[in-house]
Task: inverse folding
């Protein structure tokens, strides 16, 4: 019986949803989404190119920034194809196995991004509280280990959650409420006991995101304590300014994430547009805004962007 349920699930077709009630405007609605994806991809690729090609940026802070750009694209890119297939009326269908892969990528990179933000907080802590030991603590080997640990922790944590979906029968509606697959959306359609997935998913969010946010909070408590001990006002402002970009990026990830979790758990009967709007903000806003924030607030990144746009003019001013 379990084998039969598994084969039925694996061969199931699900149907994605665009913007309910606005189907005739889907082609027009796709234009701002195109612009957002284009800005996000170009911005993050620009950050990666600048960090890779500029030897002055071969430092821990910028390696972590490159990791953030990779996780931003890893979180948003899996949704792009299915979203435009729906908005351009190509097809609403998605096979179960493709849906699971999409879920795995979205949730894995979402957890990984949280871990990368924790690593960036640790980077700021070492830079401000232990500046003389910065290069000896954050070695390239340690940075690689941190990146791999963040990715593997998130990936392995998702496997039990998604593996159980193969054994769920979906005997009711196969219509998903988003234009891409999310775990909390799919288990709603299962006609089986989903208590393990609900509890495990909740524990996963509390443990992974909870530990990361606690680590970020503790890091900034130490950073603030260290900054307050700096004698000059100019020195304090300079130290705070090095953390400003990271604080903005943390808020951009965690505020929509908390909002989406609250909507899914406590506003289940609210308008579907609210759920869709919050999900798109969570997946699209960080990849779009993060490169802009670091380009504006970080002098080295800003110079790299200007050098890409106006290479001759910037080279002559630097000489």
Result:
């Amino acid at each position: 019986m379990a084998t039969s349920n598994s084969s039925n699930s694996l061969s199931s077709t699900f149907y994605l949803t665009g913007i309910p009630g606005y189907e005739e405007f889907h082609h027009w609605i796709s234009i701002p989404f195109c612009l957002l994806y284009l800005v996000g991809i170009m911005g993050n690729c620009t950050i990666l190119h600048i960090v890779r090609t500029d030897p002055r940026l071969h430092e821990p802070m910028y390696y972590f920034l490159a990791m953030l750009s990779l996780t931003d694209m890893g979180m948003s890119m899996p949704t792009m194809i299915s979203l435009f297939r729906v908005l351009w009326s190509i097809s609403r269908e998605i096979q179960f196995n493709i849906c699971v892969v999409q879920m795995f990528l979205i949730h894995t990179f979402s957890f990984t991004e949280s871990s990368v933000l924790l690593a960036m907080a640790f980077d700021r802590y070492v830079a401000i509280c232990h500046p003389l030991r910065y290069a000896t603590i954050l070695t390239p080997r340690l940075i690689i280990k941190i990146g791999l640990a963040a990715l593997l922790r998130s990936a392995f944590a998702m496997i039990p959650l998604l593996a159980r979906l193969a054994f769920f029968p979906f005997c009711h509606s196969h219509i998903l409420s988003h234009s891409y697959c999310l775990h909390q959306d799919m288990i709603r359609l299962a006609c089986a006991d989903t208590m393990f997935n609900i509890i495990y998913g909740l524990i996963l969010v509390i443990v992974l995101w909870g530990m990361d946010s606690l680590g970020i909070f503790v890091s900034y408590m130490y950073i603030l304590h260290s900054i307050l001990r700096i004698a000059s006002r100019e020195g304090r402002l300079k130290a705070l300014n090095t953390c400003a970009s990271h604080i903005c990026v943390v808020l951009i990830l965690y505020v929509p994430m908390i909002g989406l979790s609250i909507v899914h758990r406590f506003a289940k009967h609210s308008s579907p547009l609210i759920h869709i709007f919050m999900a798109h903000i969570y997946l699209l806003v960080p990849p779009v805004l993060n490169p802009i924030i670091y380009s504006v607030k970080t002098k080295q990144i800003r110079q790299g962007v200007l050098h890409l746009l106006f290479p001759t003019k910037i080279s002559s001013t630097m000489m």
Summary: Residues 21-244 form a domain with the Rhopdopsin 7-helix transmembrane proteins fold (CATH 1.20.1070.10). The first helix runs from residue 2 to 10.
